[in-house]
Specification:
By secondary structure, the protein is mainly alpha-helical. It has 13 helices and no strands. About 75% of the residues lie in helices and about 0% in strands.
Length: about 250
């Protein structure tokens, strides 16, 4: 009798839905992505994003935004670390999802802006295709910004295009920085939602890097201090960016 109960319990356990490895809600997944970002373990996002794609709690428009934005961040990190094969593999998945999501929500500005940034990463991986790909990238980015100029994510993504594209291809670093500043101001009006979002932390770092590259070292140093104070566990700024800008200031 006891053995029958054990077998029944095991059978029932197999029928019950498995709890997601990283959390049972979109908020849990956001926190997981944020924690891995702070710990500089972004390559582990791949498994989390796969889990999100299979989880019904992420089947909303907001969930799809988070998924595609996560892939954009993951591919960007891998490109930055020169892990091109992994970057291409995840970029293929991201572009496929982008196509799928844009067909589901043809008027969504965020998906258009993310698509533009994914094309930008494609250009980084295949520079010889820049001439043909840049037209589609700029068109999608401009359309997204026209549709939702007050959306913080769209402002960040449009700012990326403006900041990193050469002027001859439509880039404008000044306008890009303005987009970043607007996005920061907008996101900080709702810190409860954004303080533990990796995109907000990345935005602060990006603003600092833009200042640094334009040799506005005091502004860059101030921004890096802000990040270190708000996110002391994010050691990348303390160990890499802050010492770098201090060295530049001494050598100037």
């Amino acid at each position: 009798m006891c053995m029958k109960r054990i077998i029944f319990a095991l059978f029932l356990g197999c029928l019950l839905p498995m709890k997601p490895a990283y959390g049972a809600s979109l908020a849990d997944y956001r926190e997981t992505l944020y924690n891995l970002f702070i710990q500089q373990k972004i390559p582990q996002w791949g498994d989390v994003l796969s889990q999100m794609r299979a989880d019904k709690s992420c089947e909303t428009l907001e969930g799809k935004h988070e998924i595609l934005c996560g892939y954009y961040g993951l591919v960007g990190h891998l490109v930055d670390k020169k892990k091109k094969d992994e970057a291409r593999r995840y970029l293929k998945t991201a572009l496929s999802l982008s196509d799928q999501y844009q067909k589901m929500y043809p008027g969504d500005a965020c998906f258009k802006a993310l698509y533009a940034n994914l094309i930008g990463l494609n250009i980084a991986l295949s520079p010889l295709r820049a001439t043909t790909l840049s037209v589609d990238m700029l068109s999608s980015a401009r359309e997204a910004y026209k549709l939702a100029p007050n959306d913080s994510w769209v402002s960040i993504l449009y700012g990326n295009i403006l900041s990193y594209m050469p002027g001859m291809f439509g880039g404008d670093k000044g306008k890009g920085l303005n987009c970043y500043r607007y996005a920061r101001s907008s996101m900080e009006k709702n810190m409860a939602a954004n303080e533990h979002h990796w995109l907000y932390v990345q935005l602060l770092v990006t603003i600092g890097v833009v200042y640094e590259k334009s040799e506005q070292y005091e502004q860059a140093q101030s921004m890096y201090k802000t990040v270190m104070n708000k996110y002391p566990d994010y050691t990348f700024v303390k160990e890499v960016l802050y010492p770098r800008v201090q060295k530049a200031m001494r050598e100037k």
